[in-house]
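for the record, two folds in this file. i put them one after another cuz i was lazy. first one right below, seq on top, structure tokens after. the second one comes after a little note so u can tell where it starts
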Amino acid sequence: MTSSAPTHRYTVRSHVESTGLTCSPSVAQHIDRLARPYLTVEPGPCGPGAWQVVAGAEPPEDAARETVTAQGEDSVRYAVDHPRRTVHHLAPGGESWVVQSLLRATRAIHRSTAARQGMLFLHAGLVQLDGLGVALVGGSRAGKTTFVMASVLHGAGVMVCNDDVSLTAQPDGSGVLGAGWPRSVSVRLDTLDLLFGPEKARTVLSSLTHPANRTLGSLRASGVEEHGTALIYPWEYADLLDTRIGRSAGVDAIVHLSLADDPSETGVAEVPQAERAALLERHVLGLPNKHLNIFGHAPDGSGPGRTRDALTALPTFRFRYAFADAGREVARLAGHLRARVPSPRRSPEQRLTDRAAPAAPGRHR
């Protein structure tokens, strides 16, 4: 990908890694907004030896070509120069896709580092629900997004992440810390109808800026996504729900979430200790990234094992809820957890951190 726009160098930082970014100031500004509160973008080059993510420069001919194809989206092409630790964005063109592509590659590098450091990735959302850190575990279409959004709208929840979380057992045995990542929220279209009403839902859809929303309608038309889906960036999520987003939080309870087919199936049940490990293992992610697992991610040491043990020691429940009653079901689960989960005593690291709104436009002008 070549461009006549002048490029500048930036450093992207997370709680585990620092990487370089080379792009136009406008692209950097958008990445900064999309990445907060999980990653920060600072003017100036990164230190030697760090991976670099670049737009606007020709890659060497011998760089390895990598293609990321997500369902319903345009394919994104990269050139990866492993000796120089550089990832070049190639296509598609247009600023919105350049932003998305650079952020995706940067996120993959940082998450691979987190995996090497022993962090465990779980298919779960993390929300602070009435002061308790609750990991909502479940596969696709389990109702995680709907439940998290309903909890925020009803004033009971603060989202840390929507769909996957990295978890670390604290070295002093004081619990488990969960951290989120800059990932767009995939939301069912009927969830928007349920929470906001059809008219406002249409307004919301027309305002969303993720470039894949132009093509995701094909999934519904083909029957792949029965209810349709849209992608909401974290800053759009914060604006829509009039909320702030947490970067990380301590985990006090595990809830295995699912949608009930019939109202008679709803309810909360405790998971016996003997069943927790196997139930949890079904949702542990074997790879830190959906794509671009090319940076090395094999864990060092026994970190994942310690985290598994710490998670299975937490109060664990199954919760089935009715989609149409999501708001009332939030109150139901919150009340159940308050009665059965001890009030947490937080270290500074375990408290909900960085409830920060996205950076205002103009930071990198």
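(here's the note) second protein begins now
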Amino acid sequence: MKTECVADISMNSVLAEYSRQLYEQYGLLMVDTSYGTGSHTIVNTEEHLRNYVQKNLELSLPGKVLGQNTMLGMYCKDANITGNSFASDNNGAVLNRQILAYMGADVIGSLVSDVEENVMTLQESGFDTTDVDAMARENQEEIDEIELPTIINDEGEEEQVSLGNPADTVNSNRGIGPLNLAISDRSQISDTVVNLSEYASHREKNKGTGLNDDLDMSIAKRALIEQYYYEKCGYYGAEMEKSLLKYQMEYLAYGENSDYANLGHVAGTLLFWRQASNMLYLFNCGPKVEAADMMASLLTAVMLVPELKELVKYSILFAWTFAESISDLKILFNGGRVPLAKSDDTWQLGLEAMFSFRDYDGGDCGEGLYYKDYLRMIVFMTDFNIKTQRLMDIMEMDIRKTSGNADFKIDHCLDCFRAEIEIGTSYGYGATIDRVYGYEE
């Protein structure tokens, strides 16, 4: 009985040495087997276990003073960890199981269901698959194929006239990139860059023995883990002081080595979606199409190329779509709302205003989704296993910022272990105890 009690107490004592920083920042209970030394090995934990077993078999201080002996003179002959599971085992299944244990008391609210509904609307409308830029390029190529009239210049040479398409004023800005157009002041953007080769998703990870590393993932469980991301990770406009990369949700989605690159990918995705949505509205708005048609008619009549009228009209509409979409990005990055689908009330730029779209300072459409809502859609649509790997990177980045944890590695964080404890006695008797202990065992 005493040997069993000692085994139980000792193994519980090992689990009591969980990483305080991992618990405080992420609510997870795991033992960092390096114990802050930089030496990552389960041998360290075995040594801790042996010490606990031996201490629990020794006499108390009063007993030693009185010269007493322990019953049967018991001592720890050996203690070995014969099975284990680490956070990154089975593609992060162990980590996700702990996250679910942490989130267990939470009720899945409307947040996740709203994200799912928005994604469904996005996909059913084709906003995530309609490449408006490709359509605009194809339209421009057709314009370029038509030969324009020629004139004799002041030097007596024949010269092809310029079409002077007003859409070119807008299109000349496309190469600047959506992020630079949406956020002109680079000082607003985090300049943090990391070396990804140092983190879990980019290195060969330590593996356990397969002890308790299974996870039966359901839709409801996945929704809880999605909710966990929102609680523990920062993003543009809601950065966390503890974080190394400031745009952690953006990193979950794109996995680039800098905040700027990850935010740039988000801007590119938002522009893709917004152009598809805005094109659908604009091309079906009679008054706006008529305005573009009139502008194209005047231009092509003056230039004596009436055959270009339809192509020029569509080039103007594509440019208008682009300008409106950049204005949407400005609104989102400035903390405003933009609906998934525009209406007459939420459309921002008139035809004339599109030429000075870069001066638009962003406001609010009065309804719709915030940046964080669009970002959650992007993260939700990212492969689940990839997000798990990147979450481990984020945890390592943040824990390493804390005192005494410069070499923290999530794949050496122990969740569950099996131990074989051998007890000897001064009378030659012995006993072997085999136990499995974990935070959920």
